[in-house]
């Protein structure tokens, strides 16, 4: 569970070298491809090497994942033996890290992959989390200065 505005970090590995395509689905029904992207255009992921989403070890990652609004957010990564980008529907081939027109959930992405590649052509891993409204911060009372009273 995350509060609105909190950063979200995830990691994925594959047991053998694979081409990996990760998609983020926000609570409003927007879907974007996180990897590959303009900073890391290569989809090939070596076996047993961590794919960080976003890559928090580089000074300028391609994206930052913030819990955007209350609801459920999802991250799904699909691994294939070959680079399949040119076999995907045109909207999925577009620039990464932008909303994909016509896609409202990672389920839509998975259906498109099944249609384009076949049901056995990819492996999928998904994680989802709930986003809650930002909690009100407690008000901290500032100490008040004691008033001096004259001795009479």
Automatic annotation (TrEMBL):
A Pfam short name: DUF4384
InterPro entries, alphabetized: DUF4384
Sequence ranges assigned to domain DUF4384 in this UniProt record: 2-81
Protein name per its UniProtKB record: DUF4384 domain-containing protein
């Amino acid at each position: 569970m995350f509060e609105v505005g909190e950063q979200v970090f995830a990691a994925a590995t594959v047991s053998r070298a694979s081409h990996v395509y990760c998609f983020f689905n926000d609570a409003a029904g927007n879907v974007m491809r996180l990897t590959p992207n303009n900073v890391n255009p290569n989809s090939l992921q070596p076996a047993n090497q961590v794919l960080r989403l976003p890559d928090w070890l580089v000074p300028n990652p391609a994206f930052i994942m913030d819990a955007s609004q209350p609801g459920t957010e999802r991250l799904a990564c699909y691994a294939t033996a070959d680079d399949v980008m040119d076999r995907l529907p045109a909207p999925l081939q577009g620039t990464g890290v932008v909303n994909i027109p016509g896609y409202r959930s990672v389920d839509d992405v998975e259906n498109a992959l099944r249609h384009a590649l076949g049901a056995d052509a990819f492996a999928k891993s998904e994680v989802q989390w709930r986003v809650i409204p930002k909690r009100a911060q407690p008000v901290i009372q500032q100490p008040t200065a004691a008033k001096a009273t004259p001795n009479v």
